[in-house]
Amino acid sequence: MKKFSIEILPKQKSKISELNSDFFKDVYITHIPGSSLNDLIDTAKEVSVYGLNPVPHIPARSITDENTLNETLESLKEVGVKDILAIGGSVKDKVGKFDSTLDMFSTGALNNIGFKSVRIAGHPEGNPDDKNSIQSLKNKLIWLKENKFSASIVTQFCLSPEITNYWIMETKKLIKDFGEDGTKIIIGVAGPSKITTLIKYAKVCGVSSSANFLMKQGLDVTKLIKHSPTDLIEKLDGFDSLHFFPFGGIKELDDWLLKQK
Question: 88 lies in a domain?
Fold first, then answer.
């Protein structure tokens, strides 16, 4: 079985010891708007202690200025971080000078500090904070190629295989157009969870089309007790790896993966 990546919150730091290294290698660390960037650093350090690869979110709109960006990246590198996920973050939570991921890139901080593997966000079902997300994705990929970074695209969690497969196809064309065939496409998937929990996270994360997708099926979602990622994964095509959001809990996701072996 391939190894996957998983998303955790800094407040789940005590759960890192529960992660099964047979399944997971990369551990993405979410930044909560309004929280201290030191939470990312502390959690990344803990992930490294357990022999896993920390991939902290670096949210442009939650960083006040260039000095803070440099200091955060330097501190992350000191605790063993080799890969980061650069994201824009929510428009409504902007606290400083950066309006976008590209604004953050243009400071040269990534080049100066020596990161060479940068992941960026993909949004198969649209991004409420960016109405032209495909063009934004292209611009970021071009910048990463021109600056000789290894790039991967990691998506928000998806629920519609049709929408996601179309996005994968179009994104692969986009990548091929400027000759960067090494870019990995990593699809986000919600782990086993209650349907009501999934819809709650969909609204919080801005994945409104995911929640709407469930509604459009003509189903009474309140009567669907559990979401399983199995059906979605079996219908996906053309991706390189999977990234799990353990909304139902790390143990439940681990149990589900054990059954897939």
Answer: yes
Nearest to 127 by CA among 56, 61, 219: 61
Non-local (6+) Cβ contacts of 54 within 8 A are 27, 29, 43, 44, 45, 47, 48, 76, 79, 80, 81, 83
Assess contact for 167 and 124: CB atoms under 8 A.
yes
- Enclosing domain of residue 48: 4-190+229-250
Q: SS3 for 65?
A: coil
Q: How far apart are CA 56 and CA 109, in angstroms?
A: 16
The position carrying tokens 């529960």 is 18
In tens, the pLDDT along 24-70 reads 999 999 998 888 999 999 999 999 999 999 999 999 999 999 999 99
Per-residue b/e over 166-204, b at no fewer than 16 CB within 10 Å? ebbeebeebbeeeeeeebebbbbbbbbbebeebbebbee
Separation of alpha carbons 19 and 31, rounded Å: 19
CA 109 to chain centre: 21
Does 214 fall in a domain? Answer: no
- Structurally, the chain folds into a number of domains equal to 1
Q: Is the dihedral of CA 244, 37, 72, 65 positive or negative?
A: positive
The model's confidence at residue 193, banded by pLDDT at 50, 70 and 90, is: confident
pTM tops 0.85, yes or no:
yes
Cα separation, 205 vs 127, whole angstroms: 10
CATH number, domain of 26, equals: 3.20.20.220
